[in-house]
Amino acid sequence: MREIISWLAEVEAKASQFYAQASAAFAEDQDFSAFLSNLSAEEAEHQALLLEGAGLMARQPMPEACFSFDESLRQTIEDPFVRAHALLKKDELTKEAMVEVIARAEFSEWNEIFLYVVDTLKGHDRTFQKAVAEIEKHRKDIETFISSFPWGEGILAKIGWLQPVWKRRILVVEDDPAIANLIKSLVMAEAEVVLAEDGEEGLARIREGFFDVVVSDIEMPKLNGVELYKQAVEVDPDLKGRFVFFSGSQKAEDRKFIKSAKLRILPKPSPLSVIRRVINEVAVRKMDS
User: Fold this and answer.
1) CA 212, CA 196: separation in Å to the nearest integer?
2) Does residue 159 contact residue 139 with C-beta atoms inside 8 Å?
């Protein structure tokens, strides 16, 4: 977790600096320049919050991250800024290109990771609790501003942010709210996501309605993931093959059952790209079957 917070604070600092430079470059357009200046200030606030979180971690133990940090994740988030900075230096950064940079950066895993980190820390300080609400407003304001341009919705559609007409339904059964919200954020653009805090609540949600995919932890209070699966397929036999287990459990009995049932299991931690890909693969496989 320390490595993730350190890297994320670095990204926030670079983003703040870049948005400030871009604000100056577009100074003749007062509204656009002010929007970029506001983004710069917000990213600086995010950096300060992360540094505060790093200080908090130094004073007390924190849980391990549920996902792994790799070079592909770094590139996905940092590359839009690298390319835009190169255009800015050559005085070739157009307003439309700048807006696409904002969209690709702000609606990537960047803010999902920020939310996950803050969600993990928010039980320790009210400052972090407030930040969760603020980041959602931050992203909504960006979406509204981008949509105000004639070509704005085209950019949002290109990056896959606009909601499709039809949405699959995904149930996430996870007793750790930070992990549950991270998984939700990864797939919410393509799906309606329902959260359940434990196996019993998950089973109740399954009795209430249809789900394309169920993402479940294994070791949970009241009803573990394997027992949830066994009872869920009695309620809806179509759920066979539509579970994805995301767990750090090493219990041989659980893993033997999951293997025999030919179900997908992801270890904690796993790369964010892999988590999203596996969930989508299970959903698509069901649609094609």
Assistant:
1) 15
2) no
Q: Give the residue from 124, 134, 142 showing the smallest Cα distance to 178.
A: 124
| Residue 163 counted as domain residue | no
Specify the number of domains making up the chain: 2
What residue numbers bound the domain in which 137 lies? 2-158
Dihedral angle over CA of 288, 171, 120, 246, nearest 10: -60
For 204-258, write each residue's pLDDT tens digit: 999 999 999 999 999 998 899 999 999 999 999 999 999 999 998 878 999 999 9
- The answer to whether residues 142 and 23 belong to one domain is yes
**88's tokens:** 């800015």
pTM, whole model, 2 decimals? Answer: 0.79
Q: Are residues 187 and 75 in the same domain?
A: no
Amino acid letter for position 62: M
Both tokens of residue 133?
């609400």
Contact call for residues 120 and 178 (beta carbons, < 8 A) = yes
Contact 1, 117 (CB under 8 A): yes
